[in-house]
């Protein structure tokens, strides 16, 4: 074993091992002799329900946070925490992991990026924002519980795995099925109609796309809906909105209405040769639909 340990600059001894049940996933974890809490190297991808990719996009960063559009939100603390830690068990096997605090740090990165400008994120990253929001809220609730247990000494009397059961309950409270409401095809068609080169990571066109969405999506659902969405989802200090408008639509009525509208809208976009052709087709199709609804209401 001594010869194997010599291959690494520093290897720590794990005094405790176990498995963390986190939001429907199982993550190997350990506590080292120096009291540092560790999650396995693959566990960081498991926690966010993302398959591990062998190729790193940025040196020293896991691929889960190595995309170009996320780099402005990578802090020095996060870079330091991304350093792999080698440790060995009583059986002599050497494993690789990260400081467990990496999970909330990655959550913070995605939440910061979403708050700064949610339109800069691609669909796969939006799923991670949703996952991060669930994890942060649940971990915060468990954290205050653990602190009180430690302060009062109750940590020695509570049943084994009590905190994990509490975490599972809190995550169940937060969880709602995530779906990408605006498909990539919607954005690709906008860029095609205006003759722009499609780049999902570019921020140059995002204010215009927001206006396009208001004009041809939310206004068509009804001007009252858009005004109400602006009230419940106001612009914050950063000059952006904290959430996407569709996150405030109801599952029973608002979301199905949005999806039906997008299906028709994307079809009209695909049949149009350019933006002026689209505007004509949009008026022809949607004004006809609205007039039909009005005639039916009058009968």
From TrEMBL:
**Name of the protein in question:** P63C domain-containing protein
Organism, scientific name:
Anabaena subtropica FACHB-260
Which positions fall inside the Bacteriophage Mx8 p63 C-terminal domain?
166-258
Q: Which InterPro entries match?
A: Phage_Mx8_p63_C
Q: Which Pfam families match?
A: P63C
């Amino acid at each position: 074993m001594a010869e194997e340990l010599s291959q690494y600059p520093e290897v720590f001894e794990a005094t405790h091992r176990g498995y963390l049940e986190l939001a429907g996933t199982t993550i190997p974890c350990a506590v080292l002799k120096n009291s540092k809490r560790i999650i396995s190297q693959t566990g960081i991808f498991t926690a966010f329900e993302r398959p591990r990719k062998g190729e790193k996009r940025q040196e020293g960063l896991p691929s889960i946070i190595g995309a170009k559009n996320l780099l402005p939100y990578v802090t020095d603390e996060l870079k330091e925490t991304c350093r792999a830690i080698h440790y060995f068990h009583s059986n002599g096997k050497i494993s690789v992991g990260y400081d467990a605090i990496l999970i909330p740090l990655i959550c913070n990165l995605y939440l910061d990026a979403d708050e700064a400008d949610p339109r800069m994120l691609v669909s796969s990253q939006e799923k991670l924002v949703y996952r991060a929001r669930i994890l942060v809220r649940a971990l915060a609730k468990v954290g205050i519980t653990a602190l009180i247990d430690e302060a009062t000494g109750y940590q020695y009397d509570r049943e084994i795995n009590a905190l994990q059961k509490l975490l599972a309950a809190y995550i169940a409270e937060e969880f709602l099925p995530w779906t990408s409401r605006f498909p990539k095809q919607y954005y690709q068609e906008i860029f095609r109609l205006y003759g722009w080169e499609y780049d999902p990571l570019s921020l140059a066109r995002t204010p215009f796309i927001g206006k396009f969405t208001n004009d041809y999506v939310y206004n068509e659902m009804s001007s009252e809906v858009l005004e109400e969405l602006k009230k419940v989802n106001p612009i914050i200090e950063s000059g952006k909105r904290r959430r996407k408008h569709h996150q405030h639509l109801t599952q029973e009525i608002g979301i199905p209405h949005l999806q039906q509208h997008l299906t028709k809208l994307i079809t009209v976009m695909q049949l149009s040769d350019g933006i002026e052709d689209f505007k004509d087709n949009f008026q022809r199709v949607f004004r006809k639909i609205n007039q039909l609804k009005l005639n039916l209401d009058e009968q």
